[in-house]
Design the sequence.
C-alpha cells in the first residue's frame, strides 16, 4: 500500500507541475492557483467524498478493539482500554515495524568520500 501511495504522489507531480507551469505561462500565477484550486474543489473533492471510506462500519468491519459480540462491555473492559500489560510500546517488538523504520535512518547517514 505504501508503494501504491508513493507512486500516486509521483504521478501527481508528473501531471500537476507541467499543468501549473503551463497555466502560469499563459496566465499569471494568481490565476493559475485559482484555476487549480477550483479544479480540485469541483473535481477531486467530490471524488474523495464518493470513494474514500474511513469508518469501519462503511467497510462492513467492526471497529478496532471491539469485542466479538456487539454487546457493550462484553469483554469486561471499558471501550478503548488496553489489555493488561500493554504499555503502548508493543509495536517495538514487531519485526515489520523495524523493517519499515530502519531504511529512514540510512538516508541521513553521512556519505564517506
Sequence:
Amino acid at each position: 500500500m505504501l508503494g501504491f501511495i508513493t507512486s500516486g504522489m509521483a504521478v501527481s507531480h508528473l501531471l500537476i507541475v507541467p499543468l501549473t507551469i503551463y497555466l502560469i505561462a499563459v496566465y499569471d500565477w494568481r490565476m493559475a492557483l485559482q484555476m487549480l484550486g477550483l479544479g480540485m474543489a469541483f473535481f477531486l473533492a467530490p471524488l474523495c467524498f464518493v470513494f474514500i471510506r474511513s469508518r469501519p462500519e462503511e467497510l462492513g468491519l467492526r471497529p478496532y478493539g471491539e469485542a466479538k459480540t456487539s454487546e457493550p462491555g462484553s469483554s469486561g473492559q471499558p471501550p478503548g482500554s488496553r489489555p493488561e500489560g500493554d504499555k503502548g510500546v508493543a509495536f517495538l517488538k514487531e519485526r515489520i515495524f523495524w523493517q519499515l523504520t530502519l531504511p529512514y535512518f540510512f538516508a541521513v547517514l553521512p556519505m564517506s568520500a
